[in-house]
Amino acid sequence: MRIAIASDHRGYTLKEELKVFLGKEGFTVEDKGTSAEESVDYPDFAALVADEVSRGISDRGILVCSTGVGMSIVANKFPSVRAALCADLQTARQCREHIDANVLVLAGSYLTDETAKIVVKTWLETPFQGGRHQRRLDKIAGIEKQLFGS
């Protein structure tokens, strides 16, 4: 599985920790930036990951900023991206089971490294349940088609 990952300056430290963790877990990780703790604009980096997931270049994406809210907003502007802000194991599991979330967003200022790793691992290992949940994803895809075309 290919995972694109990015952060702003507030999520940089956690992003770097997660890259090591993901590598040890056997995932292919594509770091889309930022490369330091100097202030940057989160939309630039959220867009890089969301675009890769939207176009199918990466299977999934992980974004980290201070609260996770800004990057969630940006990522969800891209067709076929279902970005979910998760702070705990239950949310990580349910966003995969029910909405097949393909971008995970984390709050770098509020999660410990260990909690973030548990959330990431749960999110990566939880399969989509399909069934009635697929019907709902089909409705989301219909809205995207109506708004953005094919």
Fold and architecture overview:
It is a single chain. With about 150 residues, the chain is an alpha/beta fold. The chain has a single domain, classed as Sugar-phosphate isomerase, RpiB/LacA/LacB (Ribose 5-phosphate Isomerase B, Chain: A). Helix content is about 50%, strand content about 15%. It contains 6 helices and 5 strands. The chain has helices spanning about 10-25, 40-55, 70-75, 90-100, 115-125, 130-150; strands at about 1-5, 30, 60-65, 85, 105. A 5-stranded parallel sheet has the order 2-1-3-5-4, with helices on both faces. β1 (about 1-5), α1 and β2 (about 30) form a beta-alpha-beta unit. It is globular.
Map the helices and strands.
Blueprint: E1 2-7, H1 12-24, E2 28-31, H2 42-54, E3 60-65, H3 69-75, E4 83-85, H4 89-99, E5 103-107, H5 113-125, H6 132-148
Helix pairs in contact: 1-5, 2-3, 4-5
Low-pLDDT segments = none
Second CATH tier, the architecture: 3-Layer(aba) Sandwich
Mean pLDDT: 97
Query: How large a portion of the residues is in β-strands, by DSSP E?
Result: 15-25%
Order of SSEs? EHEHEHEHEHH
Number of DSSP-assigned strands: 5
Number of domains: 1
Termini, distance in Å?
A: 26 Å
Secondary structure category:
alpha/beta
CATH class: Alpha Beta
Enumerate the strands of the largest sheet in spatial order, edge to edge or round the barrel. 2-1-3-5-4
State the major sheet. Answer: 5 strands, parallel
Number of helices: 6
CATH homologous superfamily placement: Sugar-phosphate isomerase, RpiB/LacA/LacB
* Radius of gyration based on Cα positions: 14 Å
Kindly report the oligomeric state of this protein: single chain
